[in-house]
Amino acid sequence: MAEAHQAVAFQFTITPEGIDLQLSYQALNQIYLSGVRSWKKRVSRVRNSLIKGVYPASPSSWLFVAIGILATMYMQSDPSMGLITKIQQHLPLHMSLSTQGQTMVSALVFSTLLWLSLILALRFCLKLLLSYHQWMFEKHGRISNTTKVWVPLVRLLSSRKPLLYSYQSSLPHLPVPAIQDTVSRYLESVRPLLTDLEFKRMTDLANEFESNLGNRLQRYLKLKALWATNYVSDWWEEYVYLRSRGPIMVNSNYYGMDFLYVTPTSVQAARAGNTITALLLYRRKVNREELKPSRVPGTVIPLCAAQCERMFNTTRTPGVETDVLQHWLDSEFVAVYHRGRYFRLWVYRAGRLLSPREIEYQIQRILDDPSPALPGEEKLGALTAGDRIPWAQMRKQYFSSGVNKRSLDAIERAAFFVTLDDEEQGMRGDDPEGNLDSYAKSLLHGKCYDRWFDKSFSVVIYKNGKSGLNAEHSWADAPTVAHLWEYTLATDAFQLGYTEDGHCKGEVEPSLPQPQRLVWNIPAEAQVSSSLAVAQALADDVDCHVFPFREFGKGRIKKCRISPDAFIQISLQLAYYRDRSGFCLTYEASMTRLFREGRTETVRSCSNESCAFIKALEKHLSACSKCRRLFQLASEKHQNLYRMAMTGAGIDRHLFCLYVVSKYLGVESPFLKEVLSEPWRLSTSQTPVQQMNLFDLKNHPDFISLGGGFGPVADDGYGVSYIIVGEDMVNFHVSSKYSCSQTVSNVSVSWIFALSFCKGFFFPVLLGLLL
């Protein structure tokens, strides 16, 4: 318990002679330095609040306005048209100041008010400019005059170097679409999936909803849109994520992988040291708002950064009816799991971040610790993997006080969670690519108890130095976590680096305290095993397949003058059609971060145009000109659907919010009930590469990201995630369930995709036609 004694700043003993007070100057010094660090962060927050509060102006611009007003008054002119005189008459200090002093103060007050008015005007203009989205729908080379004027105005108003959150108050609010437009788009999206009789029935339901209940629900939704920052996001977070009572493992959480070909070091502790350091450096950038705001690729248009706020020091706590996201402003430690034991690892000492070498040293201490797990400790994490209600009940009964509460607080308040896995993963052995499947399953669910699935994200460091992460979904979407993980991988490999023998760089302070072992008192009746059984059954049912596609990539697709995303989405439609002899409702995630607090919208990729193309391709392969035309129409339709989803004209979030309103009002809508019960048998998502400048693929071609994946949404469907890497590669992550006899991840999607594109059938024909 040496670390416990070091944490005590003073001790006192009562003796017959009086009180014997003993001070620990080392502990007091640590407290002082930690306080200095906290105050520096407070000052930094105040400074950043001022800078972003006046954006797109600057704090120094007040001085120019004040000097301009005073200079004008010096020239015997009143730029305020009498307002300065009126301010002077109402000054509370007019009796104690000279006339000249009163005039000076009044001029400064007027200058401040004028300056604030100019800031509001500039911000309003920027908000109007960012509300213009027609530029997304204009074809290449056919830019309208409006857009030509709009581009330089946006550049002018956003020319100052922004902080991470500078644009937040200038982003427009997500608009509520007209109910007629949403219903019409919905009917168009389901037309290829329904028979004539089914479509007529759905049309009747939709028309009845639109003409009666829909307008009433729409009025309430518009009222919320006027009051709330975003009419979707809070309900989406609560009802889609936090109120779900099933396991979040597999069903909600997703994973991210390491480099495909490269492992920077095979030393587990060293990889952990650099990875933890890189993550904490990213957190420092977030706290100081030094990260550049994300933008629409190739433009100056900013994206909402609100999801970064809860990236670190965040956990999801279970409840009987709904979970709650808890976030703390700061945390100076991470939680570490190794061989059934939990540790608290302090990553700051004397107010400074430990060096990578020092963190490696501390991690190695954990790896070398021979102590066994306490009773009930090893599989405790299974509580976060099973159903939410039992976990909430267990938490209230056994973790609300005493030593269990203190240890649980250490995990939940940690910056993030780290698992030191005792397995080896990655491309290895006799079947390197086949082993990627077990790598994906390991990151998705592990052993069901060696991850803390409630943390905002958990980092996994394997025995052979491979790494990855598992992220909880409610606080943010995949692009935000992908941005973090890209920075982490690049900083680890190219900035921090390793010594020749694979260890971290830097020196070790010899007096570092031991990592603190967390202590538990878990009774036998805690029934962790029941949650583990639920989680294990779910994990055993998941079939994952990782498929690096190298035959061609974005470069050759663009030569066809086709959107790479549209190309891949249509190919997945073809794959599903050949696999199941039909089409299905298809989900592609699109972001709505053009709007404040925007999250995602659904692109319904299975369209009339894509279905017509696939049917023509299957029936009339020789009719190449017809296939070409239909393929171009399908691609253009998909791009248009994606743009509409990004600009707030999607279908599903609007209908979802109308459904929530109907539940609050206690009214039933057969139309909404049927819409929201439709299964997404093909759920897809593209992981964007956002920081290519961090990866020099020309000089380091092996440092290729594998991307990440997620579990299937429907029991009889597929989950497909893909990442377009460079010009010549697309990595696919396909998941399904073994319990469904109609789905096989390894064969059905990826094999058909390869057959369609590589074996001389689909791509060569289109390439020859479109070039």
TrEMBL record:
Organism encoding this protein: Oreochromis niloticus
Pfam families xrefs: Carn_acyltransf (PF00755), CPT_N (PF16484)
Gene name of this polypeptide: cpt1a2b
Transmembrane segments: 62-84, 105-124, 749-770
Topology of the protein relative to the lipid bilayer: Multi-pass membrane protein
Pathway: Lipid metabolism; fatty acid beta-oxidation
Keyword Membrane carried by entry: yes
InterPro entries recorded: Carn_acyl_trans (IPR000542), CAT-like_dom_sf (IPR023213), Cho/carn_acyl_trans (IPR039551), Cho/carn_acyl_trans_2 (IPR042231), CPT_N (IPR032476)
Occurrences of domain Choline/carnitine acyltransferase (ranges): 174-743
Catalytic activity: (R)-carnitine + hexadecanoyl-CoA = O-hexadecanoyl-(R)-carnitine + CoA
Gene Ontology CC terms: mitochondrial outer membrane
Annotated active site: 473 (proton acceptor)
A GO molecular function held by the record: carnitine O-palmitoyltransferase activity
Record-given protein name: carnitine O-palmitoyltransferase
Enzyme Commission numbers on file: 2.3.1.21
Domain Carnitine O-palmitoyltransferase N-terminal, chain residue ranges per copy: 1-47
